[in-house]
Design brief:
Blueprint lengths: L4 H7 L4 H12 L3 H6 L7 H15 L4 H5 L1 E4 L2 E4 L12 H11 L6 E5 L5 H9 L4 E6 L2 H14 L3 E5 L15 E6 L21 H4 L7 H9 L4 E10 L5 H10 L3 E7 L5 E7 L1
Parallel strand pairs: 3-4, 3-6, 4-5, 6-7
Antiparallel strand pairs: 1-2, 7-9, 8-9
This protein binds glutamine.
Glutamine binds next to loops.
Length: 274
């Protein structure tokens, strides 16, 4: 007998919400349809697709990669295993950056290591007058970012390369009102790298393969050459890195250095002004 939605959701071993989301995607239907048709027989080949995804999810594959998307700042971003999955705590970085841009008309913005493009695109969509640029070392990531910018109708100029080296086609100039980054900040020996979603995400987006501060050092040290006077730098970092990042920001000559707590009460981002 053909399977129905109710049996598949109850019998697959996944949390209900995850099972529903995968089934909706496998059937290409919405939540209302699924509820209204929960006892209907479903096409075998769609059921097979669902079972395959459910099996992968049970083995630990992230929902965002199975669904191919994740919501961030109210926009749906396509994600592939070439990019980090956008995290809710990173919305704090965008919200803080946008608050700093409030009184700056037509600001110029740089997002270093953009991955899916989530940060740069969310800023560009919130501030259509901004000129937003973003970099990534990974050409595959830049492909995802370009597709997201295109789909969401955001104007973001993309550059390939390692942090500021991506801008090597021009001389360092104090042009940016804002530099933001969510760099790899997990130390090479952190056990979390072999747990949960992180096992499936690109290692280069997660860890600097050193003490966790390597990328943050490069980003902070390079910022003064590119920031306009009064321009802001905001970076995301690990739960225990805030004091060290504030020291880096101060050592780079930035003022008004401070950190902000995420919804979990963790100092998650730090920044300062030139
Ligand atoms: N916030 C991510 C995590 O700890 C790490 C992202 C990063 O290294 N930038 O799961």
């Amino acid at each position: 007998m053909a399977a129905c939605a109710r049996d598949l959701i109850e019998g697959c071993g996944l949390p209900r919400l995850e099972a529903r989301m995968l089934l909706e995607r496998a059937l290409d239907v919405n939540r209302a349809w699924l509820i209204a048709h929960d006892a209907d027989p479903l096409p075998d080949e769609r059921v097979a697709v669902f079972r395959e995804w459910a099996g992968r999810r049970l083995r630990g594959e992230p929902m965002a990669y199975l669904l191919g998307e994740r919501e961030f700042m109210g926009h749906v971003f396509q994600v592939t295993p070439a990019v980090l999955i956008p995290r809710p705590e990173t919305e704090l970085l965008v919200e803080t950056a946008l608050a700093d841009l409030r009184d700056r008309p037509a600001p110029r913005v740089l997002d270093l290591g953009t991955g899916s493009g989530a940060i740069a695109i969310a800023i560009a969509l919130a501030r259509p007058d901004a000129r937003v640029e973003a970099t990534d070392l990974s050409p595959d990531a830049l492909g995802v970012a370009a597709a997201n910018a295109d789909r969401l109708g955001a104007a973001v100029a993309l550059h390939q390369g390692d942090w500021y080296e991506a801008l090597k086609h021009r001389d360092a100039a104090p042009i940016y009102d804002l530099i933001v980054s969510n760099p790899p900040y997990i130390a090479a020996d952190d056990a979390h790298l072999s747990q949960g979603d992180l096992r499936y995400e690109p290692a280069t987006a997660l860890t600097d393969r050193a003490d966790g501060l390597q990328a943050l050092r490069a980003i902070v040290a390079g910022a003064p050459a590119w920031l306009r006077r009064g321009g802001a730098l905001w970076v995301e970092h690990g739960w225990d890195q805030a004091a060290q990042v504030r020291d880096l920001l101060t050592a780079a000559g930035l003022c008004g250095v401070g950190s902000r707590r995420d919804l979990a009460g963790i100092e998650r981002i730090s920044g300062g002004y030139l």
